[in-house]
Amino acid sequence: MNSWLEITQLQKKIDDFHLGPINLQIEPGTITALVGNNGSGKSTLLKLIMNLANPDMGNIKVFNKFVYGQDESWKDKIAYQAQTPIGYNPYTGNQLKSLIAPLYPNWDDTLFVDMVHSFDIPLHKRYGKLSQGVQQKLNLALTIARNTPLLLLDEPTSFMDIPSKKRLVDILVDWMDRGDHAIIFAGHQAEDIMKLADYLTVLRNGTMVGTFEKEELTATYMHYWLKEPLGKMSIPGEISREIKQLVSNQPAATEQFFHENNVAWTDRKALDLDEIITYLLQEGKDGYINDGNDVIGS
Amino acid sequence: MQDWKQAFRLAMFELKASKGSFLALFLFFLLMLFFFKTVLDYDLDKKTGIFDIFVFYIFSSFMMLVVKRKGFQIAKINEDVIASPSFVMLSQLAIKKDTIIKSRFIIHFVYSFPFQLVFLICLYPLTPGIQHALPVSSYIGLAVIWLSFSFYFGYGFPASEAGIKGTVKATILSYAMIMAGLLIIIFIPILSGYSIFYWTIILSRNWPLASSLVSIILAILGVIYWMHYARKSIEKFDYL
């Protein structure tokens, strides 16, 4: 299957921050969460995809077109919601809609109206006069309603109240079901990631840790409670240890070791996604090495 | 043609939201008309560089930047780049970069040309000093010289909306260049005996056709250059 987005060996240096190398492919029907600590390069990566910045190395293709090429037809097929939109302040929601809607042939006005009502967005007020939460809701309505195959969302729920977050997740799930779509979103909220994402692409201080299938990842990390302290023995898959507790990202190998060495454990529990992300973002704790070729949806 | 049509639609969108700025521009030009009439009637040929600064202020289109609403003025996008927020907004939408540049040029045209043209049309009948110095045909030449200047110099402003360096070094350099420009304007009358404005009166009086033709060619080349400059700026800057 053809990738809608293909990132190859992408690198970007900004002052003393270095992003990449990033290798990523996005295929239809998938939702990918970009996960990383603050300043890990998630927003920069989305802006590079939108050709708002120039990479130092590597390539980005959207629908088989280089984003920095002369052919800009790829722009019709991608909708981007910036974390902090620039240039919206002087306009009302109505004005912004009248600017944006005609640019996208598949603009879904029913969805836009539905989101405006659901989120109670006043379209007659100037964007700059709205609260951050309402700005974010309006921005999302203006972005999702473009109904492009590929949707990029940068921290879409960071200023939202809990009911609105839940509503947004429903909208996005419904939107994914209505045709060939793919979403990439940058986010910190484990709940959103848990509900929405099929894949997690993890960035740690600009370095790509890897891309993981969510279900696989949640099944991989296991927390064990042991009968006796472990002593100094080295355990396969071990990524964290306390006196009588151990966390492993290779549970099969760990349990095999326990069995062979008569190590008794009283309980085990799969880690929550936010705990797994925490481990992935701690250098040296993940046990993963980026193989440099992450394909999503294949 | 389709590009220009879309650029026009985008420009209208911003212009409709900028109505207050046009009232400010109208009042500014009214004030300038009164000022020019008074000064030119008093002493046409011995103007100092200070008067030229006002001429440059109007025809460089600098004052259009000042009257723009805050949300439409160029602003710091990040540590390194100053650009137009509208430009950045449009860059994130399904619009060709060339179309965005054209829309910025159309907006600048609407902000500058009609006001400058009406200003020049009103100045002649209101100012006996100019009428004595130039017949109508030569005055048209003078008008062409300054309107053309507003193209080959003024369109640097919409071109810079795609991005200029916002570093401290670049800012200091910009201020230094502005200061150097002001000093040149002030010193030309001292060194040559006439102000720049009066030199253009001499040009239009003696060679109205030639000076007009050269000015129009410069205006066309200027706009082409600034469009190219804007395209290069987009490729150069990171809107992070």
TrEMBL record, chain A:
InterPro entries, sorted: AAA+_ATPase, ABC_transporter-like_ATP-bd, ABC_Transporter_VariousFunc, P-loop_NTPase
Q: Does the keyword Cell membrane apply?
A: no
Xref: PROSITE patterns:
ABC_TRANSPORTER_2 (PS50893)
Which Pfam families is this protein grouped with?
A: ABC_tran (PF00005)
Q: Which UniProt keywords apply?
A: ATP-binding, Nucleotide-binding, Transport
Q: Which domain of life is it from?
A: Bacteria
Name recorded for this polypeptide:
ABC transporter domain-containing protein
The ABC transporter domain is annotated at 2-230
What GO annotations for molecular function exist for this entry?
A: ATP binding; ATP hydrolysis activity
UniProtKB/TrEMBL annotation, chain B:
Can you say what this protein is called?
Uncharacterized protein
Q: Which organism is it from?
A: Lentibacillus populi
UniProtKB keywords:
Membrane, Transmembrane, Transmembrane helix
The portions of this protein that span the membrane are 20-36, 48-67, 105-127, 139-160, 172-201, 207-227
Superkingdom of this entry's organism? Bacteria
